[in-house]
Amino acid sequence: MRTEYDFSGAKKNPYAKHLKKQITINIDEDTIEYFKNEAEETGIPYQTLINIFLSDCASQGKKLKLVWE
Questions:
Q1: Which of 21, 15, 49, 22 is closest to 33 using CA atoms?
Q2: Are 39 and 49 in contact (CB under 8 A)?
Q3: What is the distance between the alpha carbons of residues 47 and 29, in angstroms, rounded to a whole number?
Q4: pLDDT band per the 50, 70, 90 thresholds, residue 36
Q5: What is the dihedral of CA 49, 66, 25, 20, to 10 degrees?
Q6: How far apart are CA 53 and CA 5, in angstroms?
Q7: Reduced to 3 states, what is the DSSP secondary structure of residue 8?
Q8: 36 closest CA partner among 47, 24, 21, 23
Q9: Confidence band (pLDDT; 50, 70, 90) for 30?
Q10: Three-class SS of 34-46
Q11: Are 66 and 52 in contact (CB under 8 A)?
Q12: Is 90 exceeded by the pLDDT of residue 42?
């Protein structure tokens, strides 16, 4: 192994903006169960399904409509 490396000609990773970031989030058990059932039907891991759903909402600029009564 070299003692020093020259990165002066290195390029930024073009896929870095597509990397995922691990977070902690509290989700209702019913919601998790829904996505786990969907995962069984589709063969896609439930966490991936949640990410796909949230990504779709974000890309379409969907806004949540809440009514507090």
A1: 49
A2: yes
A3: 14
A4: very high
A5: 50
A6: 42
A7: coil
A8: 47
A9: very high
A10: HHHHHHHHHCCCH
A11: no
A12: yes
Tell me the HSE value of 56 on the side-chain side, using a 13 A CA sphere.
Answer: 6
pTM above 0.90, yes or no: no
Which tokens belong to 12?
Answer: 């930024």
What crossing angle do the helices spanning 29-42 and 46-60 adopt, rounded to 10°? 100
| Residue written as token pair 């009514």 | 67
- Which two three-digit tokens encode residue 43? 């063969």
Residue with tokens 């870095």: 16
Closest CA to 54 of 44, 43, 64, 68: 64
Residue 50 host element (H or E):
helix 46-60
